Each structure stands twice: as structure tokens, then as C-alpha cells.
Q: What sequence folds into this?
């Protein structure tokens, strides 16, 4: 099956710094990628939808200036958490979509654990 | 907008017993429905999905789910669970085409299989 990778798997950063998380579709081209955030023992909350070559669409309540998303190619999307604070500590998961209608598939990356100290 | 309700936050069950994890959704249009499993500190793995056709969907690891449009439900079942099935299970809905393929997740159900 299709594989989505994320890098890094874990990152610890100091408050006030920025951190970039990469999401790659390894063996397919993804026109759309999604970024989710998951707090401990909670569900995944959709943060934004990213289409290759265009600006990301953010969900209500998600600060676009804080969570910068770049989808530069059909295989790479990045999430940059700017001026991170401890409350940004979370598990970030990306997902890539292929196909439409009956062939719809969505593949998830393994996640990135961000800890802001 | 669509929403997903998983009725049980935790389901303890003994090994080799059957299990049902309940999921209800709301949407004004046609939906795609999914069940995912998440093991600790890992991403999500697709168990099964309903896009169209037969309402009984069979997935991996012996799981199956039945789409019931009148009851807006998509309950997940397995006739005999194993210790290795202990994990978090998420029901999800994608509101095609109006939802733009955004997948919304339920709160999750923690399945705990006891020996």
C-alpha cells in the first residue's frame, strides 16, 4: 500500500523557537494533504487542508500565521510551528489523499510528537 | 456539516469474545465512512471503509462494519478478539463532495482486550 512518512518522529524545542515537520508521500503523488493535531487520549482534529501549489485552507480556530503550511510538490508538505509555546505540544499527523469518488483513499503518516519546553 | 459520535469511550472485553464498537454520524449528504485503528504513539491504519455498494464491509484483521443509512450508524464488529486488538479505534466520515474530502473523526473508543 501507499506510504506516508513524517520527519522528525519526535522533536523537542524551546519556547519561542520554530520547528518544521515534513510529510512525504513515498510512492505516490498526493494532490491533497491534510494536517491533524491530536492531544493525549483525544481524537484527531483537522487543522488544515493543503493542495499542491496553492495556499492551505485552515479550519476555524487554527492560526494560519502560527501554523505555516507549504505544499511545494506533489510528494511533500511541510508544517512549521512558529514561535512555539508549551501549549503547542501535541502529536501532529499528516495525511495524503489519492483518487476521487469510488477510488478515494487517504493514507496517514506515523505522526510527529512535538514537545515545547 | 458532518459529525461523528462514538458512543463508548472504553470497551473492555475478554479475549476470544465478540465485540461491537458503535459509531453514529450526521450529515445532510452522502458520506464515506471509515474505521481506523491507532496503536500507541503511531499513526492511523485503515481497517475498512464504506464508499458505496454493499452495506456490509469487511476489513483487515477480521473486522467488519455495517452501514445503516436509516439509523445513520456504522458499527464495527469482530466475532472473536485477540490481545493484539487492544488499541484506539476511530470512526470517521468524509462528506463528499461538499466536504471537500475533509475527514472528520469521532472521539475514539479504547478497546482493551483482557486475557
A:
Amino acid at each position: 500500500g501507499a506510504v506516508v512518512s513524517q520527519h522528525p518522529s519526535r522533536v523537542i524545542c524551546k519556547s519561542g523557537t520554530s520547528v518544521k515537520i515534513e510529510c512525504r508521500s513515498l510512492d505516490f503523488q498526493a494532490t491533497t494533504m491534510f494536517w491533524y493535531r491530536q492531544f493525549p487520549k483525544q481524537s484527531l482534529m483537522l487543522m488544515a487542508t493543503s493542495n499542491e501549489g496553492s495556499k492551505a485552507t485552515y479550519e476555524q480556530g487554527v492560526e494560519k500565521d502560527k501554523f505555516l503550511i507549504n505544499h511545494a510538490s506533489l510528494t511533500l508538505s511541510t508544517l512549521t510551528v512558529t514561535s512555539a509555546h508549551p501549549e503547542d505540544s501535541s502529536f501532529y499527523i499528516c495525511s495524503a489523499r489519492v483518487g476521487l469518488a469510488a477510488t478515494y483513499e487517504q493514507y496517514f503518516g506515523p505522526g510527529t510528537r512535538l514537545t515545547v519546553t | 456539516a458532518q459529525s461523528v459520535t462514538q458512543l463508548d469511550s472504553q470497551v473492555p472485553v475478554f479475549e476470544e469474545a465478540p465485540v461491537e464498537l458503535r459509531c453514529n454520524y450526521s450529515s445532510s449528504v452522502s458520506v464515506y465512512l471509515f474505521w481506523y485503528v491507532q496503536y500507541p504513539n503511531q499513526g492511523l491504519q485503515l481497517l475498512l471503509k464504506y464508499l458505496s455498494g454493499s452495506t456490509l464491509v469487511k476489513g483487515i484483521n477480521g473486522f467488519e462494519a455495517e452501514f445503516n443509512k436509516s439509523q445513520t450508524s456504522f458499527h464495527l464488529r469482530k466475532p472473536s478478539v485477540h490481545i493484539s486488538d487492544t488499541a484506539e479505534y476511530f470512526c470517521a466520515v468524509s462528506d463528499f463532495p461538499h466536504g471537500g474530502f475533509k475527514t472528520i473523526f469521532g472521539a475514539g473508543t479504547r478497546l482493551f482486550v483482557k486475557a
